[in-house]
Amino acid sequence: MSDARNPEFTPEQLAEVRRLQGLYPDKRGALLPVLHLAQDTFGYISLEVEEYVAGLFELYPAHVHEVVTFYTMFFQKPKGRHVVSVCHNISCYLMNSKGIIQHVGERLGIEPGETTSDGRVTFLTVECLCACEQAPMMQVDDHYEGNLTNEKVDRILDGLP
Amino acid sequence: MTEKIFTRNFHLTDSHTLARYKETGGYTALAKAFRMEPAAITEEVKKANLRGLGGAAFPTGVKWGFIPKASTAPRYLVINADEGEPGTFKDRYLMERDPHALIEGMVIAARAIGSHLGFVYIRGEYVQPWRVLDGAVHEAYAAGLLGKNIQGSGTDFDVVLHRGAGAYICGEETGLLSSLEGKKGWPKIKPPFPAVKGAFGHPTIVNNVETIMAVPHIINRGAEWFAGLGTKGQGGTRLYSVSGHVEKPGVVEAPVTVTLRQLIYDHCGGIRGGRKLKGVVPGGSSAAILTADEIDFPMDVDGPQTKGSMIGSAGVIVMDDTVSIPEALMVVARFYAHESCGQCTPCRESTGWIYKMTHRIVEGKGRKEDLDTILDVAKRGAGTTICAFYDGAVGPYISYIEKFRSEFEDLIRSEAHA
């Protein structure tokens, strides 16, 4: 079983890596897309995943590490099955993101940056997601939820399997 | 009611499909552009007075003209869809609701600059816009609107969608190119400018989503028509992202002659609950804040400058009289401290330091010298860094304090008495 400690793409995924690399004038251009694929596959980007991906690009692991650590969307440790990211930037702040952040934390029993002990939800505060017209808002996995109230937050969190 | 250009199809549920786009005149500009000389396309865009709509407002046609004529190297067209300026959300709407206008604009721009490969750099969090645009790109390939010998024109052009991974600095064009090359998003020293040495070391034009989406309309209806919609400094309409304490926040399309007051009161229903306006940021969080009596100017590239601010991304952030300006500055300062890429010392150190000072002021632990220290640090660092990120941070640092100084002083003084 391939995982973040022992990462290996399937033959199909390796073909996808080659396809992505072929889209760019220099195959290194595909590093971010391949890291997205790796995170989707292995759950997070461990040092082992960095080393594995480095091998696919003929890069040193340190080069991949400096990329992984630069971007907020790459997780370097296991995350929950769901990621809830509440915006705390200016427009959401103006529309009470502080209250929403406090409510999410109480409801989940964790602080921003933490994951619930059952591994269900990782809770983050993030900078502007550019959906300010629906402030206060948050991202739940791959979609946006806006015009948040405590009640709406409860419905959303309770609905996460 | 003024004419809608960018948002003309927003009310249609299938506005993102090729069928609907073509039914409403889509891809007719492309056919016209294929009959034009590349230089004539660039000339038309110059005459239209189209300015970059991502934030820097550089004249688009002039930028296209910077590609070295003699160079035989591959040229790339890169679309900056890394929308990230706090208070801005227009490109998300445009990509979700009119993706084919972006594709058509890209093919026309590619013809103008002689490019056969384009990239769209979309911020990683924008999963839905990416899905919609990806669907549109597939439709365009299937219909022969992308790929080899487009519409029998002899023109080849491919489009690659590229997802970012969470970093505001990648919206800065050279940081974006570093990221596209598979590196951390560190900006590069200019010159050389991307038009000379850009993505993967080759001549590259980087344009914002909305900017490129104006191009089909300019080609179809002419430069004079587009220029005539605007002011001396800028042609056309544009999308304003209005958020904060207005009754109806959202995307507003208006000619660039629209005033900030009209945007707030006529288009967005005024301040929520009939409250009073306290401050407004006209162009995304990097623009200087304005007071309630500084909102009577056209929202083109020049208007906000007359008040010491900038149009930036046209993200209008409205604050009513309940807002604590020091706390709002702390929120903004936290953002710049978090997003500084760390490459240049003045930016890396000052953004962190200034955030800490604003934080302690809000906590009631401010020192009386803090305000002057922030202003001094802000002013010394401006203009000393590789990219414009720190200059953008300086806009709010200075303006929030200079325009609302007594509010900061009250917080500091109240602690002295405690």
Instruction: Estimate the mean pLDDT confidence of chain B.
Output: 97
H/E element string of chain A?
HHHHEHHEEEH
Q: Count all strands of chain B and give the number.
A: 9
Largest sheet of chain A: 4 strands, mixed
- Domain unit count of chain A: 2
C-alpha Rg of chain A (nearest Å): 18 Å
Share in β-strands of chain B? 5-15%
Name the poorly predicted regions of chain A. Answer: none
* Oligomer status: heterodimer
Fraction of helical residues of chain B: 40-55%
Q: Order of helices and strands of chain B, N to C?
A: HHHHEHHEHEHEHHEEHEEEHHHHH
Portion in helices of chain A:
40-55%
Number of helical segments with 4 or more residues of chain A: 7
According to CATH, the fold-level topology of the largest domain in chain A is Glutaredoxin
Strand percentage of chain A: 5-15%
Distance between the termini of chain B: 56 Å
CATH architecture of the largest domain in chain A: 3-Layer(aba) Sandwich
**Strand elements of chain A, count:** 4
Q: Radius of gyration of chain B, Cα only, in angstroms?
A: 22 Å
Overview of this structure, please?
The complex is a heterodimer of chains A (161) and B (418). Chain A is α+β, with helices and mostly antiparallel strands. Chain A is built from seven helices and four strands. A four-stranded mixed β-sheet of chain A has the order 2-1-3-4, with helices on one face. In chain A, strand 3 (138-140) and strand 4 form a beta hairpin. Chain A is elongated. Chain A starts with 10 loop residues before the first helix and ends with a helix. The mean pLDDT of chain A is 97. With 418 residues, chain B is an alpha/beta fold. Chain B folds into three domains: 18-228, NADH-ubiquinone oxidoreductase 51kDa subunit (Rossmann fold), CATH 3.40.50; 237-320, Roll (Ubiquitin-like (UB roll)); 325-417, de novo design (two linked rop proteins) (Up-down Bundle). Chain B has helices at 18-23, 28-34, 38-47, 60-64, 90-97, 99-113, 127-142, 173-180, 209-221, 223-228, 260-267, 325-339, 345-362, 370-381, 389-403, 405-417, and strands spanning 76-81, 117-122, 158-163, 204-208, 237-244, 250-255, 277-281, 290-291, 315-320. In chain B, the strands form two sheets. In chain B, strands 6-5-9-7-8 form a five-stranded mixed β-sheet, covered by helices on one side. Chain B has a four-stranded parallel β-sheet with strand order 3-2-1-4, sandwiched between helices. Chain B is globular. The chains are: A alpha+beta (161), B alpha/beta (418). Chains A and B meet through helix 2 and helix 5 of A and strand 3, strand 5, strand 9 and helix 12 of B.
